[in-house]
Amino acid sequence: MGELQSFKKGVPFIALIIFLPLLSAAVKTEINILNSVPYLFQIIPNQSCAINENLTNVFDLDDYFLDDNGDPLIYGYSDAENISIAIDALNQVSFYPDFNFSGTRTVIFYASDSTANASSNLVYLNVGNDSEPPKWSSPSKNKVRIYQSSYVNFTTLWTDNLGLKSYIFSINQGVWWINYSGNFSGLQNRSSYSIQISASPGIQVQWMFCASDTNNNANCTDIQSFNVSSLPIPPEVPQGDVTGGGGGGGGGTGAGAEISRAKKIQNFSVDVKSFKISLKQGSTETRIVRITNTGSANLSFNLLVDGIEDFVVLSGRIFTIPAGETKDITIDFVIKKDTPPEQYFGRIIVNSSTGYEEIAVILDVNALELAFEVNVEILEKYKRVRPGGIVKANISIKNVKDILQTNLILYTALKDLHGNIYDSSQEEFLFYLPLSLERNLTVPVDAQEGEYIFYARVSNEKNLALDSDIFEVGVRFKFAAFIKSSFIFFLILFLSIFATILVLRFRKEKEKERVLSSYLMLNELKNLIKEEKFDDAIALYIRIKRLYREPVSEELLENKEKLKEEIEKLAERLKTKTIKETEEKAEEIAGGEAGKEKIAVVKEKSVVGEAEEGHKGIKQEEKLKKKKAKRKKRGAKEKEKKKKLMKKEILKEKKKVNKNKKFKK
C-alpha cells in the first residue's frame, strides 16, 4: 500500500519532466539591446596652414569618434566660408583654402549611427595670419655619461599659439651634421629622437632640434653638446660562493660590481666572437654562446651587457664552470615595437677572475611595416681586403607597398664592430621601380685587421630601411705568425721525411747485403757442383731461391739432373746483376783509368767464373784459356796488384756479412 502511495506522489513529477520541453519550446525569448549613442572621445586639434597651402589627410575622424555597439558611423561637418572640406572613404579629412585667402574659420564635425548623432568640439582653421614661431624649452638627453655605441634619446619641449607641424633633429658626431625628421601636432608637444653614438671617446658631439608650425614658422634650439666618455673596464667577478646556473636575467652591467683592470688573458674559451642580427620591431631572435673552462681549476663568471641593455636577455649571468667542462648560455635579442629603426652596437663581456672576452653585437632594426626594403651584399671578391683597399657592395632596393614614386636618400658607411665610422657617402634619387646599385667605400690605410661592416640606410620623410654586410680586413703575410700557427704540421712533416729517409737507407743497405750474399753463395754453389756434393748444393740452391722469394717444387727436388739444369739457369740469370754490383764496388775502390782497368778485370773474372759455374762446354773453356793467356802477358806486377785489391775487397765484404749475421743472431 505504501509503495502505491509513493508511486502516485511521483507521477506529477514525471509528467512535469516529460512535458517541460514541450512547454518551453512554445515560449519565444527576446532580448532588446539598447542602441548606444556615438560620442567624441578626444578633442580634435586646431589646424593651421600658410596662404595657398592645402592640408590633406591631416587626421582620421575614426580616431576621435566611437560607437560602443560597433555600428558604422557616417560623418558630416558644418560649412566653413572660404575653406573647402573633404572626407574620403577612409574618413580622412582634408582642407582646401581659397586662393590668396587668409583668416580664421571654425568647423564642427558630426558622427551618426543612423539613430543618434554626436558632435565634435569647435575646430579653428587658421590660414596665413600667424607669424609667431614655435617656442622651445628643456632640451635634454636620457643619459648623463655617454660612451661610444651608447643608445641615447634626445628630447625638447615645444609650444605654439596655433599648432605644431614637424621637427628636425640634427647631430654632428665629429664629421658633419646629419638631419632626421619627424612630425608632431597640437599646441604643446615634445620632439624626440633616439640614436646610437658612433663618435670615438673624447670627441665632442653637438645636437639640436628645429620645429615648424602649421604656418611654416620655424625655430631652432641652441646647439647642445657633450663629450663621449671612455668605455669602463669590465667589472670584477664578485668574490665569494658563486654557484652555477645563475638563473635567468636580462642585460645590465651588474649593480655593485667593482672595477678591475682584468687582463684579456684567460683560462677559458668562447665559441663566438661577434653577432650580427637583423630584426624587425616587435620580434625576437635567440642565440647560444658556449663557454669552456680550459684551465685546471674551477672558474667563476659574470656576464655583462654594454650599450644594448634594453635588447638583451641572458639565461644566466653569474655562474661557475668546473675545470674542463662547458656551459651553454642562451641569449634572447628582444626588439620592442616602439624601438626606432636604426643600427645598434654593443658588447657582451664574458668576465672571469682570470680575464675577460668580448662578444661584439650588431643589431639591424627595421620597422615592422616597411614601405621599401634594402639589401646589402658585398661582392665575393671584396669579402677580404687589405688596408687602404676598396670595398664594393651591391645594394638592392625594392617596393614592399604600392609606392608610385618618392625621393629617397641613400646613406652608406664603413664601420667597425663598435660603430666607429671610417668612410661614408650620401646621395638622393627618385625611386619608383626596384633597382640595384653598386657602391664602394675605402678602407683606411691604418685600419687594423678584423671584421668590418658595410652599412646602407635608405629613407624618406616617413620611412626608413637599413641593412649591412660583414667583410674582413687582412694584413700582409706574417711569416712568424704562420710558422707559429703551423708548428705542429711542420714538425709532423719533418719527422715523416726523416723516417722515410731512414727506411730508404735501410732498404738500400739490405739490398747490398742481399746482392753480396747471393754472390758468395753462387760461388759456393759452383764449388759444390764441381765437387759433386749435390745434397749440399741442393740445400744451398733452396736457400738462394728463398732469398729471391722463388719457391722450389717437390718434383724438381727429386730429379737431380733437372735440378742441376735449374741451378745453371739460376746462375745465368743472376750473373748480370752480380757483375753490375761487383763493378760498382770496384769503381768505388779505384778511380780513373786504374779503376776502369780493375773493372774490366773484375768483369772478366766474373764472366769466367759464371761460365765455369754453368758448365757450358769445351769451347767456352778454350776461350777462357786464351783470355787467361792474354792477361798473363800484361805483367806480373799489375796482375798481382789487381788481385790483391780484389781479394782485399772480397775479404772486407765477407767480414761485413759475417758481422751482420752475428748481429742478427
Descriptive account of the structure:
This protein is of the alpha+beta class. Among the domains are: 39-127, Immunoglobulin-like (Sandwich); 135-227, Sandwich (Immunoglobulin-like); 369-476, Immunoglobulin-like (Sandwich), CATH 2.60.40; 490-664, no CATH class. It contains nine helices and 37 strands. Strands 14, 15, 17, 18 and 19 form a five-stranded antiparallel beta sheet that branches. It has a five-stranded antiparallel beta sheet with strand order 20-25-27-23-21, with no helix packed on it. Strand 36 (450-459) and strand 37 form a beta hairpin. Helix 3 (487-530) runs antiparallel to helix 4 and helix 3 crosses helix 6 (560-589). The chain is rod-shaped and about 150 Å long. The N and C termini lie far apart (127 Å).
